[in-house]
Amino acid sequence: MKRYLFLFLSVSLLVSSCTETNPSGPDPDDFDRKAILENWAENIIIPALTDFSQKTESLKTAGNNFAENPSQQALEALRDEWKTGYLAWQQVSMFETPKTMEIRFRNNLNIYPVDTAKVKENIGQGEYNLNLPSQIDQQGFPALDYLLYGLAESDSEILAFYNSGENSSDYRNYVVDLVTRIDSLTDIVLNDWNSSYRHEFVNNSGNGANSSIDMMVNDYIFYYEKNLRAGKIGIPAGVFSGTPLPQNVEGVYSREFSKELFLESLTATQNFFNGKHFNSETTGSSLSNYLDFLNTIKNGTDLTQLINQQFEASRTKAQNLNSSFVDQVETNNSLMLQTYDELQKNVILMKVDMLQALNINVDYVDADGD
Amino acid sequence: MNLSKSLLILAAFIFTISCDTNNTNDEIATPDSYEFTRSGQSTVSFSGQTTRIKMATELSVAMTDFDNSTEELLLEMYRNETANGGDANPYSDADLNAAIKSVKSKVAASTDFFSTNTATSVELKNQFETWISAQINEVFPNQNVEAQPGIAGQIADGTSTRYVSAKGFEYNQMLAKGLIGALMADQILNNYVSVSVLDAGNNVEENTAKVTLDGKAYTNMEHKWDEAYGYLFGVSQNKAKPLATIGEDDDFLNEYVGKVNSDPDFEGIAQEIFDAYALGRAAIVENDYDLRDEQATILRNRISTVLAVRAVYYLESGINALQETPTNYGAAFHDLSEAYGFMFSLQFSRVPNTDDSYLTKAEIDGFLAALEEGNGLWDVQVETLQNISTSIASKFNFTIEEAAN
Fold first, then answer.
1. B158 and A CB contact within 8 Å
2. In this complex, do A132 and B159 lie within 8 Å of one another by their Cβ atoms?
3. In DSSP terms, which residues pair with A276 in a beta bridge?
4. How many residue pairs bridge chain A and chain B with CB atoms within 8 Å of each other?
5. B330:A132 CB<8 A
6. A152 close to A120: Cβ distance less than 8 angstroms
7. N or C: which end of chain A has fewer CB within 10 A?
8. Which of B61, B159, B248 is the best substitution to test chain A (most A C-beta atoms within 10 A)?
9. CA A315: distance to chain centroid?
10. A31-203 carries CATH number 3.40.30.10
11. Handedness of CA A136, A141, A147, A152 (dihedral sign)
12. Residue B156: strand pairing partners
């Protein structure tokens, strides 16, 4: 009897505390979370990954063609595929799964700045294991950026590395190894979604720390905060170092694409928030309508609206940036800093206000750096 | 009642009142700066501690310098002498090469714990050499091998690469975090703030009479206390007012006093430590040895607490990484290697007013053996780590939750 009494007391306490903290608002449990997961998987993640894998396939082909005959034409074709692939990558980089963690997908495809000395060391030795953790800054899109644009000032000098230079065959092999690896890692991730993970992801629709929504939203905000806000803008602008670091710009050797890469990533994160289908104007269930369902208001305004306005404010600010962030940082860094500030405002709206409304805990902390 | 007697009573009365207000000229104030002078000359000196922290820093960095480090070089950095006992010049800093001091001579070398326990002292000194040799002979040859259970090599921890032993340990972390206890904490808590050292020989008489050491501006007792201070603040940017940069000045005790202080649950601990040092030193100047010893009890408790908080913090971080999907071995190994070093360091902690460490050497050896068992960190159980974490926290006045965040 005592035990029942205790149970009754705790239940009533629980009930009263619930109603106190959420007097009249809708219950997050009443929302169809599975619909969000289906929309993300079916209409955003898998189509974006499928598209990306087609582009990595083309990149691989162009890389092989270039290695067979390193002509000016083949170089330009490879550069085109590299750029196309790099832009498509911005649409999928944010989506973490156990598989992407296991194969360290993002770290293997897009760690910059590339360590050019070690790239040359690999090529010089002709022997390397790109699967080693210490090799993450010697491969992927940034290493190709260096090999296709950064080896020398002029195209003819760059081509000489592949045609007549001392290790020209090693240079060609290295390009082939990089494009092959990008493509095969992408296939692993896409196959995992198509074979088993889609089902697992959609059906893990509860609301605990290990549920699909909680994990995906954490990964999404982590990506926005670390890779988009800090990696693409804050670090090169010197927000964390005090002095600008132009060598840390994404696509530093091709130089002219850094803004495009950034804007693509910004659009991808906003589209994900709004549940916008990949490569389409249609929208489906996502964080925006989840917040709308919960009627989340901050300072009298709808939170969804505030977050979208902030995405727009960031984009508007970024429109004024030079297409090359290297040039931007070196000529007028304050515009970069202003863009960073706009991006930062959405960290607060999403990481604090949105997560609170959705009752999701942040599952990562800033590494303690030692 | 005559006049002088009434005056005496009145004086006593005033004294009592003013004591209550806790602010009189009779009390020794806590200096806000660690600056002490005699006849216009500074009496503060701890250059030997600065030297040893710098030597330990070079050694710690060289542990992962795959291109330049050899076993001979690392052992020379630890001993500051050659294998034959000759003069060695292993450091990049010429001042360190010129110095005759060494890290090894002050490892597990406190008067209170080791003056009559040389067997253990030698064992602990040699432990660091074992880690150094294993780093060179086990980890270095596998620099470009992927680590697996039973195979040393590299493993990813986010964008960082960690180099681990066959059992998943980073010897460089064990060495660095182990020195925080074996060198810094042991010398401070069990040596330089100890009555056995402060009051040795004629120190009390000489300090009371302000008889300074030959050619120096300070008394021996003052100097001993300063040496305790130097093991925490010896490389601080502003050595007299070191708290503005606490945590940034070295990779050893200073760094972790700073880290613990930045946890809201322990905010203010750095100030408490500084105040105890400064007031203890002022007490020595004023010959107030009871007040000095009260400050020593504060240092012993707070600095021991820093070691324990970090041990629990890294154990909990390691547990979290092991529970990720997929298991985040790289992060876990890094955290647990640091935890190993801090646990090792806890045998040099000191319970105030006793002769004991907070955890016995046997208890700590048990924890470390549990981590090393079988394939080591590759198969250590979360429950094992949780039990260790609970055991450590239970000896201190904090909870696992307070330490973990």
1. yes
2. no
3. A283
4. 38
5. no
6. no
7. N
8. B159
9. 17
10. no
11. negative
12. B161
Interface-testing mutation among A101, A108, A129, A200, with chain B (most B C-beta atoms within 10 A): A101
A24 at interface of B, judged by CB pairs closer than 8 A: no
Rounded to the nearest angstrom, the gap between the alpha carbon of residue A29 and the centroid of all alpha carbons in its chain is 29
For chain A, give the percent of residues with pLDDT over 70.
Answer: 92
ipTM of the complex: 0.84
For chain B, give the secondary structure using H, E and C: CCHHHHHHHHHHHHHHHHHHHCCCCCCCCCCCCCCCEECCEECCCCHHHHHHHHHHHHHHHHCCCCCCCCHHHHHHHHHCECCCCCECCCCCCHHHHHCCCCCHHHCCCCHHHHCCCHHHHHHHHHHHHHHHHHHHHHHHHHCCCECECCECEEEEECCEEEEECCCCCCHHHHHHHHHHHHHHHHHHHHHHCCHHHHCCCCHHHHHHCCCCCCCCCCCHHHHHHHHHHHHHHCCCCCCCCHHHHCCCCCCCHHHHHHHHHCCHHHCCHHHHHHHHHHHHHHHHHCCCHHHHHHHHHHHHHHHHHHHHHHHHHHHHHHHHHHCCCCCCHHHHHHHHHHHHHHHHHHHHCCCCCCCCCCCCHHHHHHHHHHHHCCCHHHCCCHHHHHHHHHHHHHCCCCCHHHHHC
Q: Which of residues 212-241 of A touch B (CB under 8 A)?
A: none
Domain borders along chain A are: 31-203, 206-370
> Rounded to a whole number, what is the distance in angstroms from the first to the last CA of chain B?
65
A329 Rama class: left (phi>0) / alpha (psi -120 to 50) / beta:
alpha
Residue B301 dihedral angles phi and psi, to the nearest 5°: -70, -50
* Contact assignment for A370 to B255 by CB distance below 8 Å: yes
A64's tokens: 């092989």
pLDDT at A218: 96
Alpha helices in chain A (DSSP H): 2-21, 33-38, 46-68, 72-89, 98-103, 105-109, 116-125, 140-145, 155-163, 168-192, 198-203, 212-222, 258-274, 287-293, 303-319, 325-331, 333-347, 355-358
**Phi-psi map region of B80: left, alpha, beta (phi>0 left; psi -120 to 50 alpha):** left
Q: At the fourth CATH level, which superfamily is domain A206-370?
A: M75 peptidase, HXXE motif (1.20.1420.20)
Model confidence band, residue A28 (pLDDT cutoffs 50, 70, 90): confident
Please name the amino acid found at residue A131.
Answer: N
Residue closest to B330 by CA, chosen among A139, A136, A177: A136
Do domains A31-203 and A206-370 share one topology? The answer is yes
Low pLDDT (below 70) residues in chain B: 1-26
The answer to whether the Cβ–Cβ distance between A210 and B156 falls below 8 Å is no
Residue in this structure with the two tokens 């059906």, named with its chain if needed: A203
Instruction: Say yes or no: B326 contacts chain A, CB-CB below 8 A.
Output: yes
Asked whether the CA dihedral B286, B291, B293, B294 is positive or negative, the reply is negative
pLDDT level of residue A30 (50, 70, 90 thresholds) = confident
Q: Please state, in angstroms and rounded to a whole number, the distance separating the CA atoms of residues A62 and A56.
A: 10
B156, B251, B325: residue with CB nearest A133: B156
B168-179 residue pLDDT tens: 999 999 999 999
B253 vs B133: CA distance, rounded Å: 24
In this complex, the residue of A98, A111, A136 whose CB is nearest that of residue B325 is: A98
- Cα B119 from chain centroid (whole Å): 22
Contact A136 B159 (CB under 8 A): yes
Q: Is A134 in Cβ contact with B146 (below 8 Å)? A: no
C-alpha A79, offset from chain centre: 21
Tell me the C-alpha distance between B74 and B59, whole Å: 6
User: What per-residue confidence (pLDDT) applies to A366?
Assistant: 65
Q: DSSP string spanning A212-256?
A: HHHHHHHHHHHIIIIIIIIIIIITTTTTTTSS--GGGSTTTTT-T
